[in-house]
Write a structure and sequence with these properties.
The protein is an all-alpha fold and about 170 residues long. About 65% of the residues lie in helices and about 0% in strands. It has 4 helices and no strands.
């Protein structure tokens, strides 16, 4: 006769953790939405004000700063998509995370201040980051690569019986 199974409250604990994760993700989504909206309005107002001054040159550092600010807002939107995808499906979409990281590295390359191109270690580091992220994204997009299905629902308790075959592939004793 099997001993009665005791979970010592781990089921309730796991539900609490799951609900806590969802609450924190929802709070982060709302916060990021507000910050992104305010940042977009500020960028729009500042750009319109600068455009109304006819003597200001736009080529060079001013355009570079505008592109950097726009890419920051785009990265914030991508992070918001990551959070909302987690809230909808309960999973982190690694492809979306990689695209966000590629955008962040691209932003760094695009807004590289003058004189930074003389720092070879910085350029090598950015190049390695771009290659690593691109390779990871390429690997994920390969149709021959089979990934396990995403986890849905609550995590299983580690106390569940092991369903794997015994070593040697034989029939379990009993």
């Amino acid at each position: 006769m099997a001993a009665p199974r005791r979970d010592f409250g781990t089921g309730r604990l796991l539900r609490l953790v799951d609900n806590g994760e969802k609450l924190i993700a929802a709070l982060l989504a709302v916060l990021l939405l507000v910050v992104t909206a305010v940042g977009s309005v500020q960028l729009l107002v500042a750009t319109v004000q600068q455009l109304s001054q006819p003597g200001l040159p736009w080529l060079g550092s001013r355009m570079n700063a505008l592109l950097g600010d726009m890419l920051i807002l785009l990265i914030a939107l991508e992070v918001l998509q990551n959070i909302t995808a987690y809230l909808r499906r309960g999973i982190v979409q690694i492809q979306l995370v990689l695209i966000t990281a590629i955008t962040a590295v691209a932003r760094k390359v695009i807004v590289l201040p003058p004189g930074e191109e003389s720092k070879p270690l910085l350029l090598i580091g950015l190049g390695v980051a771009v290659l690593a992220l691109a390779a990871a994204y390429w690997l994920l997009r390969q149709p021959t690569l089979t990934l396990p299905p995403p986890r849905k629902g609550r995590a299983r308790s580690f106390r569940e019986p092991d369903r794997s075959p015994p070593p040697g592939g034989g029939v379990p004793p009993g």
